[in-house]
Amino acid sequence: MTFVCTLSSEDPLLAPVVSASDSRATLVYPIGYDDEDDSSYQLFVSFDRAPGGVVEYSFCITCTYSSGVVHDFWDSKVVANMISSSDRASIRALLLDATARLIENTNFPEVIMHSFAPGLPPKALAKYRRIAQLFRNQGYRVRETVRGGQCIWRFNREAAAARGRRARRRRGR
């Protein structure tokens, strides 16, 4: 298998396949193909309802094989073995941009995100923390916890808005 990235810094942002409803928003971008077996690869970025009704943010790379079978790649170690460092950087840039767009265009009061694998190295956690910063930039309060080595982030927009109102009241505005 040889992954061929179709993203380019010279190309404008790709138009994603979009799916949206009151409880879900999904963007899917074509990112490459396998030059040996014609499989295609996509970046999947989504808000969706998780058990318990909370909205969960997730992302992965999907591969659609020529047979029509789809395989999801969630583990960064697996992706690192398939895709070069420079191509992963391009995909990461697209992930961050797509995530920022989703956050800006949705209004979920609470969202959770968790790392796929426990015990991630600092470099892998940096990607998640950059995503958390995107939520902060849109007015969410961010709380990070660790359970069994797996990182979990909770983003709460209402709490951030209430905190801002309380601070303005204390200042007399």
Notes on the protein architecture:
It is a single chain. The protein has helices spanning 76-82, 85-104, 122-137, 157-170; strands spanning 3-5, 17-21, 24-34, 40-49, 55-64, 70-73, 110-114, 141-147, 150-156. The chain is of the alpha+beta class and 173 residues long. It folds into 2 domains: 1-89, no CATH class; 109-173, Cell Cycle, Chain A. A hairpin with a 5-residue loop joins strand 5 (55-64) and strand 6 (70-73). The chain starts with a strand and ends with a helix. The model has no long low-confidence stretch (mean pLDDT 86).
Number of helices: 4
Mind telling me the C-alpha Rg?
18 Å
Q: What's the N-to-C terminus distance?
A: 61 Å
Helices and strands, in order, run as EEEEEEHHEHEEH
- Rounded mean pLDDT score: 86
Structural class category: alpha+beta
Fraction of residues in helix: 25-40%
Number of strands: 9
pLDDT under 50 segments (min length 5)?
none
Proportion of strand residues: 35-45%
Major beta-sheet overview: 9 strands, mixed
Q: What is the approximate shape?
A: globular
How many individual domains?
2
Helices and strands in order:
Layout (H helix, E strand, L loop, with lengths): L2 E3 L11 E5 L2 E11 L5 E10 L5 E10 L5 E4 L2 H7 L2 H20 L5 E5 L7 H16 L3 E7 L2 E7 H14 L3
Parallel strand pairs: 5-7
Antiparallel strand pairs: 1-3, 2-3, 3-4, 4-5, 5-6, 7-9, 8-9
Helix pairs in contact: 2-3
